[in-house]
Design a protein that fits this description.
Layout: E1 2-5, H1 10-20, E2 25-28, E3 46-48, H2 57-65, E4 70-72, H3 83-88, E5 92-94, H4 101-117, H5 119-127, E6 145-149, H6 153-164, E7 168-172, H7 178-183, E8 186-187, H8 190-196, E9 199-202, H9 216-221, E10 227-230, H10 239-247, E11 253-256, H11 278-283, E12 289-291, H12 300-318
Parallel strand pairs: 1-2, 1-3, 3-4, 4-5, 6-7, 6-9, 7-8, 9-10, 10-11, 11-12
Helix pairs in contact: 1-12, 4-6
The structure holds nicotinamide-adenine-dinucleotide.
Length: about 325
Amino acid sequence: MRCLVTSSRHYDREFLDAANAGRHDLVFEEASLSARTALIAQGFPAVCPFVDDQLDDEVLHTLAREGTKLLVLRSTGYNHVQIPTAEQLGITVMRVRDYSPHAVAEFALSLMLCLNRHVHRAYNRVRHGNLLLDGLLGFDMYGKSVGIVGTGKIGTALARILHGMGCSVLGCDVLRNPECEALGVRYTSLDDLLSQSQIISLHLPLLPETHHIINAERLAKISPGALLINTSRGGLVDTPALIAALKTRHLGGVGLDVYEEEADLYFRDHSDDIIYDDTFERLLTFPNVIVTGHQAFFTREALQTIAATTIRNLTDYSEGRSSGNEVRSK
Ligand code: NAD
């Protein structure tokens, strides 16, 4: 099947070409899909977007008009695609249901450890010859309460790691996960989890009901000095409210791999540009905030699985089979 791979980087090409082994006609394009660029997909029956491609109503209408029938997402999350519109237009949307929950869980842990033990500050200090320990005091994670909001695949992988480190794990989810219960995760309400945890990690999908689930009111419920980690989607957190909670020193630290307005910012080099997003820039001024550019998924194993599943999705669709990876609005 002829497929345009948008927002593609050299690593996408490397892993997809290896998984494809010549079965499908893959064309790699660095540009991301938006209303301005949607015509690059003209004549492609399949398009393979990433999370920074904007698949809103306007883009989907252009794709449908120009002959696209299939979107094979290189992601688990699909909040960047207007699924009801795709359905109305007869475009099938398939995703990578899961690749490596370990990649994201281990990255969330790395943000916790880095923030708690101030590794990001120590790295810069030592390079400048400053070997003072002042300002670098952390706490043992052993015996501390860590709250996991969303105990699905990634939340459970994190619960397993934290259990092994001797943490007391609290969980919050609309569904209780038996594997987490077997590990001793104590399920509680979101408000209770926020007030009792020294570290909180978000592992929810971005849905209308989870949009800004961490807002000013919820931030006020977080135990003073606690660390907040978000490796899920930026829209889960109200960023101006987060900045207000950092300015009052209510939060001990924040680790963000995702940002609500990341679509025009992330996966690009802006080192010679002026960044006009003042909210993003303000976040970077706090010594107790670590921002990374949506890299939690970025391991060799995850890229191999994403590529293999994407090729399988293309093959299943072209041979008229359902893979179970189709995304539906209901
Ligand atoms: P999952 O579907 O296995 O788990 C999500 C959990 O959230 C489920 O248990 C679900 O019941 C729960 N949930 C849904 N709505 C809820 C609500 N309102 N309140 C409480 N719980 C709720 O998903 P996953 O594979 O663990 O991934 C979680 C998220 O991580 C994805 O949706 C994606 O946005 C994000 N992600 C980020 C990266 C990255 O590189 N940063 C990579 C992969 C996934």
